[in-house]
Amino acid sequence: MSKTILIVEDENILREIMKDYLLEEGYRVIEAADGKQAVSLFQEHEVDLILLDIMLPELDGWSVCRRIRRTSNVPIILLTARSDEDDTLLGFELGADDYVTKPYSPSILLARVKRLLESRHIREHDSDTLSSGGISIHFPSRTVSIDGTSSGLTHTEFEILAYLLKNKGIIISREQLITKIWGYDFAGDDRTVNSHIRNLRSKLGKHAKQIVTVVRSGYKFEDEL
Ligand code: CA
Q1: How far is the CA of 32 from the centre of ligand 1 (A)?
Q2: What is the pLDDT of residues 30-87, one digit of tens each?
Q3: At what positions is 4-aspartylphosphate found (predicted)?
């Protein structure tokens, strides 16, 4: 089954180029030229990943991201026009998984798309589930339940939680997380990680404190006392 990618980009030439690359790689492609169209196409189709420009007519990329995150954890890669750190951080706060700065090379973009679409942890695990106290990860479905209730984690939040839980009791540095989750070529910094950890903790509710911040070192996951 080929995966479906929604490209949201108002510049026709850029959209066409991206579309050609994705089609060549065997993906199905749906296109939106403005933010409103993006939201409605997303509601009408099964979409596996979204490439989302920020500066868009009708509804900007931030608003599109916010609306989609109300109902879905679909992987979202932001396409930002400049390497503005504040833009990137806002994107992560809104639940985006990754970003690419324009002008980007198609091969880098494809690499990011592939990384988000593959579910590495399924292969890395002997058992289907991993739990600690009220938190339980089910790898085949990539779902997390908290006290028996399914919790909507984004792709990135899932990866971070799975990695910390797999390495329970071990301090994991922010650099390790960046390398593990986004890869070596990722330009994000510590604040990127902080932002995702903050989102993740808020979804863990009363179990948030199981992700312990170790000053100047990183994070570690601990069983509940
Ligand atoms: Ca634009």
Answers
A1: 11
A2: 999 999 999 999 999 999 999 999 999 999 999 999 999 988 889 999 998 766 677 7
A3: 53
